[in-house]
Amino acid sequence: TIEKTLSIVKPDAVDRNLIGAIYQRFENADLKIVAAKMIHMNAEKAQGFYAEHEGKPFFADLVEFMTSGPVMVQVLEGESSITRYRELMGKTNPEDAACGTIRSDFALSLRHNSVHGSDSPESAAREVAYFFADDEIFPRS
Ligand code: CMP
């Protein structure tokens, strides 16, 4: 099934000029970028995005980091894109991420882990809609 998933290139990666290198990984994996923009989130926007983590011990640090600089947000479309993108990213903690994954190659730490991806069809639908209106998404096949 062709799916859409929400991707974020986080502040640590934008700051280190890794946008192009990470976009290349998406395209090499046949994940099509069908929507994209650069934004700098405020606390309210980041808290809303990560609402499921509210109350966890790392929540404040997560919001502080995600508002520390601009990010690239994009919608990736492709066959089984949700799980395939998660495989491409590797495990959340770069120390656990397999060789050749985005986080293994670029991430600095569990917090500064370079990329985010939706973890299920339900969160993909919510997260895509959180950042993009329907007329900002350009599906292709
Ligand atoms: P992400 O996929 O964006 O979803 C939530 C983020 O919280 C996750 O990537 C990590 O960067 C961060 N995170 C998860 N667990 C922890 C933790 N134990 N300590 C600090 N940050 C965490």
UniProtKB/TrEMBL annotation:
It comes from the Bacteria. GO terms for biological process: CTP biosynthetic process; GTP biosynthetic process; UTP biosynthetic process. It catalyses: a 2'-deoxyribonucleoside 5'-diphosphate + ATP = a 2'-deoxyribonucleoside 5'-triphosphate + ADP; a ribonucleoside 5'-diphosphate + ATP = a ribonucleoside 5'-triphosphate + ADP. Keywords: ATP-binding, Cytoplasm, Kinase, Magnesium, Metal-binding, Nucleotide metabolism, Nucleotide-binding, Phosphoprotein, Transferase. InterPro entries: NDK-like_dom, NDK-like_dom_sf, Nucleoside_diP_kinase, Nucleoside_diP_kinase_AS. Pfam families: NDK (PF00334). The active site is at H116 (pros-phosphohistidine intermediate). GO terms for cellular component: cytoplasm. One of its GO terms (molecular function) is nucleoside diphosphate kinase activity. ATP binds at K10, F58, R86, T92, R103, N113. Its EC number is 2.7.4.6. Residues 2-139 form the Nucleoside diphosphate kinase-like domain. The keyword Kinase applies. Major role in the synthesis of nucleoside triphosphates other than ATP. The ATP gamma phosphate is transferred to the NDP beta phosphate via a ping-pong mechanism, using a phosphorylated active-site intermediate. Homotetramer. HAMAP family: NDP_kinase (MF_00451). This is Nucleoside diphosphate kinase. The gene is ndk.
